[in-house]
Amino acid sequence: MNLDLENYDITVVGLGYVGMPLAIALAKYFPVKGFDINHKRVSELSKGWDSNREVPQAQIRTSSCNFTDNIDDIKGSNIYIVTVPTPIDENNKPDLGALSAATKMIADILKKGDIIVYESTVYPGVTEEICGDILERGSGFKSGVDFFLGYSPERINPGDTEHTVENITKIIAAQNDDVADLLTKIYGSMNGGRIFKAKDIKTAEAAKAIENAQRDINIAFVNEITMLLNKVGVSAYDVLEAAGTKWNFLSFSPGLVGGHCIGVDPYYLAETATKVGHKSELILAGRKLNDNMGEYIAGRVDRYINRAKKVSNAKAKILVLGFTFKENINDIRNTKVIDLVNSLKEFGHEVDIHDPHAVVDDVKEFYGLDLLSSIPSKGGYDCIVLAVAHQTYKDMGVGNIAQLLAYDDNSKAIIYDIKALWRKEKMPDNVLYKYL
Ligand SMILES: NC(=O)c1ccc[n+]([C@@H]2O[C@H](COP(=O)([O-])OP(=O)(O)OC[C@H]3O[C@@H](n4cnc5c(N)ncnc54)[C@H](O)[C@@H]3O)[C@@H](O)[C@H]2O)c1
């Protein structure tokens, strides 16, 4: 294999949160094309606009990366890096539809000697057994002989400007040492050589699947003790702050666990357990607990509303602050705030939602909800629930937020602060302030 990097022409297939920053980073060192089947996305990127707001306009415009949705434009490439979605279906089973479609497309244009690297999150075995098979059948070539497979899981985190694709350690694995060496050189060029060469492709696939499953379980533990501690009458945040002073206590916070990684990857790991006949005790236990947090929190909020209004079955006007799956990003996929909102509505409350980052039209399209386009100047809310700790809300401060509440001498208004953002601040009189 020729390790001379000048011979390589790369296509990144799938230009989303993962593929787009990767394509731009690699294009600083190699000829790179970015391919996506979404015409609108390609057209926006070609004009320098990343609607995910991961790559700034100036960087896209000055990049040598070309964006296309035309397969003819990528036929000359000899390395394909696949970064398409790997979600779960309605039964929480891995949905490999996009991965298979992208692989079939590559099979149609495959040449001898080409390398296909998968970055999409998968369960162990998918790259070689499923994608390798699709490539063999589509091209008539032999995997590991005529073309070569690699796997390099992506670890970036939407909106995280500290742990970017250019400064985090990349796991690399390939079918043979030559390909692994080549990929080490390629990826190493853009991330300062922070490469860990995994033993083989299955090992790298498994490493990714357990990273997020581990986080899920840890957060689930904290969510469970939150429920327990609430019954005891103490706050989980206060307890965790105290326990966190021990040198080996792990730091996790309670709350809604959404997104398309932590909320999805455990199901990929569970699929492995099913396939090999292993009865897992723990992997999905956390998911079940975390998936119920929206409903649980809504129940707490409803209880405080009844207490504040001094009646049972009180109906309140509630403002939920934040809709995205985490702070300071516009990603609404798999947000668990929707569970909270739906549960509050089931209690009969009227719910308004504001988010400074979520795109109003997207929320309407995917969830059928009308977001407030701005924070109302006069609120008149009985209760405000802080669901996502966006910087906007931190900057506003609890004093300004509390102005949106309506209360009188007979009844208190409520701030339910899921993220415990204001737990050390002085609250206005007549505000019942609660956090997990
Ligand atoms: N978003 C993250 O922070 C993150 C982090 C680590 C790993 N991952 C994993 O990376 C993969 C990609 O995630 P993402 O968040 O970038 O997804 P995304 O939805 O943001 O982007 C995927 C892109 O792939 C395109 N696409 C779909 N099918 C295609 C096909 N057949 N051919 C070409 N393009 C196609 C879509 O149009 C979309 O633009 C997933 O497996 C995900 O689990 C994501």
Describe it.
The chain has 436 residues and is an alpha/beta fold. The chain folds into three domains: 5-198, NAD(P)-binding Rossmann-like Domain (Rossmann fold, 3-Layer(aba) Sandwich), CATH 3.40.50.720; 209-289, N-(1-d-carboxylethyl)-l-norvaline Dehydrogenase, domain 2, CATH 1.10.1040.10; 294-435, NAD(P)-binding Rossmann-like Domain (Rossmann fold, 3-Layer(aba) Sandwich), CATH 3.40.50.720. Helix content is 39%, strand content 13%. It contains 14 helices and 13 strands. An eight-stranded mixed beta sheet has the order 3-2-1-4-5-6-7-8, with helices on both faces. Strands 10-9-11-12-13 form a five-stranded parallel beta sheet, with helices on both faces. Helix 4 crosses helix 5, helix 7 packs across helix 10 (285-291) and helix 11 (293-309) packs across helix 12 (337-346). It is elongated and about 80 Å long. The termini are far apart. The relative contact order is 0.08. The model has no long low-confidence stretch (mean pLDDT 95). The protein binds nicotinamide-adenine-dinucleotide (NAD). The site of nicotinamide-adenine-dinucleotide (NAD) has 28 residues, from helix 4. Nicotinamide-adenine-dinucleotide is lined by residues 13-19, 35-38, 41, 83-86, 98, 101-102, 120-121, 154-158, 260-261.
